[in-house]
Amino acid sequence: MSDTDTVSDSAFDYDVVIVGGGPAGCSAGVFTARYGLETAIFDRGRSSIQRCGYLENYLGFPAGIDIETFYELIHDHAEEVGCEVVPELVEAVSSDERGFVVETQDGDPVTTERVVAAARYDAEFLRPLDEGTMFETYDHDGETHERFDREYPDEGGSTPIAGLYVAAPAHDAEAQAIMSAGHGARVARTVLADVRRSRGFPDEVAAHWDWIRSDRDLTDEWADRETWREWFDGRVPADHALNEEHFVELREREIDRRFETYLSDEAIEQRIERGHRRLLDHLDDDLVLEKAREIKTEREGTKTNG
Fold it and tell me: Where would I find the FAD/NAD(P)-binding domain in this sequence (predicted)?
């Protein structure tokens, strides 16, 4: 589901580049790509999740899940919604007068308007952007070392450098895989709010929620565009700086987006079936066949007993 107000800036190769393809990076990418931003996820560094022997505390997998399958799932999800997953190592991120230049070990530099750092173990690629506040010194075994300051970004991932966001390393957000994924989504929402502000949305309506609902909930006055217009107008201060034409354009696009989040029962059922089928693509074929035989036997037994 992409937002109708998003138009990729052709001056950049990507709207957003995410460095790190673990739970934080892929989660952030899902949100930015679903909004309609051209998003690339660079993933060929050291991933902390790949050091895990088996993942047992990630919600939604009752018996746990192996890391290989989990990694395939999060990358498949990111690609499904429009992210480009690039298996290259980012060596440096620098800035120019327009945005950022991302230099990789194997490929040509790419340009982007925004960067999300999501690599837990190594933030050295951010060195070209450091103005003396991004890294801190510490003593270990009598020697002085330097590391990325986890307090450099705020809780939403924003940094003193416009357009640079950090999902990892940051605070204690990557202590567990599910926390990393949640923080990646939080940082992505910070990115989206900034994007919306840059495109004219006042602060009061800049926040974005990615939320699908049943059109059965779209009832009474909320099925009427005029109600949404009144809601939008009521949220925005009367002294906003937008000219009337731009204000109306943003408001109508926002209303369109909100109506698009309501799906019919038929559309929901189609998505349910498609979602289940996609999960099957990641399951062991022999186990799927074994379960299918069990289901067939149970159904035949039910018919016989009936």
Answer: 14-118
